[in-house]
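ok here's Cation-transporting P-type ATPase C-terminal domain-containing protein, seq below lol
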Amino acid sequence: VGCLCNNAVLKDDAVTGQPTEGALLVLATKANIADPRNIHRRMEELPFSSDTKIMSVTCTPRHVKDNVDLDHHGHPICVFVKGSPDSIIQRSLYYRGPAMIHKNLHSALSDGPILPLNEAIREALMLEAQNMGQNGLRVLALAEGSSIDRLILLGLVGLVDPPRPGVDAAIETIFAAGVNVIMITGDAKETACTIAGRLGLFQAHNTAMSGFELDHMDVDTLSREIRDTTVFYRTTPKHKCKIVKALQKHGLVVAMTGDGVNDAVAVKSADVGVAMGQGGTDVCKEAADIVLVNNDFACILAAMEEGKAIFHNIRNFVRFQLSTSISALCLIALSTILKMPSPLNPMQILYINILMDGPPAQSLGLEPPDKEVIRQPPRRVRESILNVRVFVSILLSSAVIVSGTFWVFYNEMSADGQVTPRDTTMSFTCFVLFDIFNALSCRSSTRSVFSIGLFTNRIFIITVLISLLGQLLVIYAPPLQSIFQTERISALDLLQLVLISSTVFIVNEIQKFLIYSPKTRHLRTSFLGRSTTSHNPILKLVSQFIPKQRFQKNRYRSDFSV
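and the structure came out like this:
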């Protein structure tokens, strides 16, 4: 029956079609059962339906001489059915009893007596199916008969469908990132909960919900009941849409995976639709935003990691560019307000904007994903790239750059009371070095450069070296000296400028340590505890850009669900 009610093809040890049907063909091959499709011609097929949970085919003999099995009423057996145990057991009126085991297994099954199927046997069969499901087996029931209403139950088949290697680790990492994973399956409760438990999806405080329960809930009710539900079993594609809407109504960003035609609506309605590349229908792929070519769930983790990395790289790029631009603007504005000459001439400003800012800024966009970025909590949907914390960091860096550069310029100009090429060279070089140290610190907004690695972004290192070489040429190459109005300075002067300009790097690293380091968590917690009860407006303002700690006691409190 498993071979007849089957659309898969086994050729050269390779299966084409559904894995479940392919497993039945492999089982028949290992049991030395001849393919019954060679002696039966399929006349009609009732495809598997999520509502009926069965698949049936109607067959006739290919040749007149072929023997046809008869039921106990003498009617020819021509309908072969497979599906969920509860659906087929309830439809069956009889079952085939045990037979003597012959060399031909197919003959042994056919020789068993046909016996009435009473309620006691039905309960025993359902209990056996539940026991198989608790062992993580996907259970199918097989039956045959003269019609769909007069089925003879043949038995139960258990299939092992283990998760791909690495899925449990991927789910654990996704949980750590504040993302909740929900399993939606058509399997029985026992099978679904067992597999989910092995993957860490189903814990003692979690609940499972059936498709029958979903049918009796509206979206509003489901959005309230779904809080601790991580497993949905015996579901249909229409249930997926309801689950997506309920999660979205809860204010979450939802990603939905699917592969069939019926999944397309749910995949399309989700915020992020994910389709399976292997075995997935074209309709589902067109509706999806992402297609997993190898059907590997871990690829979703990689996509999340890449997405977070891109967002953080854009934020670091903006942070660096704005801090440099604001510093240059404030430096010129400050000298104008104080009625002093400009520390930078127009050619030097153009050089900074085009050659010194451009390459390092572009290389910040190529920063590889930080290994800790995936564990950071999801950001709010409408969170801006330039939030309060980033803006404060930009102002802090700009203040250090402007103060240091202006001090160097004022100190040099005070020596003779007038602006000389040496004065502009010192201030120009100081500003460029400030830029380089600032770019180094902007590689990460939360972690120290030493923890992510100085040489993990080779493009950044190359662009920084090119920028340093260009600055040395501007200082020491006579043709460029005349263009940029610079002059040669000593090695001691360069060392002094390096020490001064490194302050922006030191300040930024201290800021990241105080705000983001786990070692200072207790200080942040106590500070925020006082600030929330205090009426001091300054403390309330500062508490807005110090990140509060997120605890994953309730994993559902996330901004993203799969």
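fwiw The chain has 22 helices and 16 strands. kinda neat tbh
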